[in-house]
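=== RUN LOG ===
request id: a7f3
mode: sequence -> structure
chains: 1
length: 333
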Amino acid sequence: MRLRYLLRRLLLLAFIIWTAATINFFIPKISPRNPVREKLAQEALRGGYLAEGMEQMIEAYEQKFGLDKPAWQQYLLYMKDIVRFDLGYSIAFYPKKVLDLIGEALPWTLGLLTVSTIIAFTFGSVIGALIAWPRAPKFFRVFVPSLVVLSAIPFYLLGLLLIYVLAFRWKLFPLGGGYGIGTIPGWNLDFIGQILRHAMLPALSIVLAQAGGWAIGMRGMMVTVEGEDYMNFAEAKGLKDSRIFFRYGVRNALLPQVTSLALALGYIVSGAVLVELVFGYPGIGTLLVRSISSLDYFVIYGVVFVLIVAIGVALLLIDLIYPLLDPRIKYGE
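=== RESULT ===
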């Protein structure tokens, strides 16, 4: 039963990836114009030493993607490249490949937003559970007004405020970037320290903006589970308050939160755009904005494709983790 369930989910993931790849292919086909050739021709017309190389690149793209062939043949060639994880070449940074550009930017985004989202989820869920727990100290309820306010403020506004106060006025952190100007990247303590220092402000803006939402959601779920029979039974057995709180209350109230966490992790790439733009962070969001401004179509398609695949993988993982969190959920049922 577990193997059948896993195979069914993997087939669903494959269908999602195929759908994303198909949409990526047919969106440019809606217009009768050829945006790829037009953009490459514009670059070639600028003159200079790139003109000859651009003309060669136009010919290479036409041969590679069969732009002079029928749409169905182009589609088959495109799907063949997708299976081989070949997303094509960047127009603005030729001869760099799209996959190489995404590979350079993605670790920055994953490192910043994954860690920040998990910290916000953990902190917010614990605070939200303690706010709703009747036996918790009263001072936790002081957090409610501030958390509600913070949850209503977008990332980029908090980021601008933090930049002005902590970086511009107090000069405690850098104004932006992933590391210092003139620094040579490498696996050494100085470079790692600069990465952590530059990531503090964007990470703090994400944690402050997200923790309120997680806390409010967790508080509502804890209020719901407090009246359940298993909670009353645990109290009647005389179990310790800490065990009732974590094993019976938090564990059951956390299930909807975990679903939201999986979706939030899947949307990390799209959520990175404004945060990285405000702080000048060299991640996937900055790459996407730069590609849109330069009409680098293949990079845009590649980033969108990676985003959809990330969401599909996140949903697959949450489907597999759910039975481990809740014994009432069984594979295949």
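=== NOTES ===
The chain is about 75% helix and 0% strand.
The mean pLDDT is 80.
=== END ===
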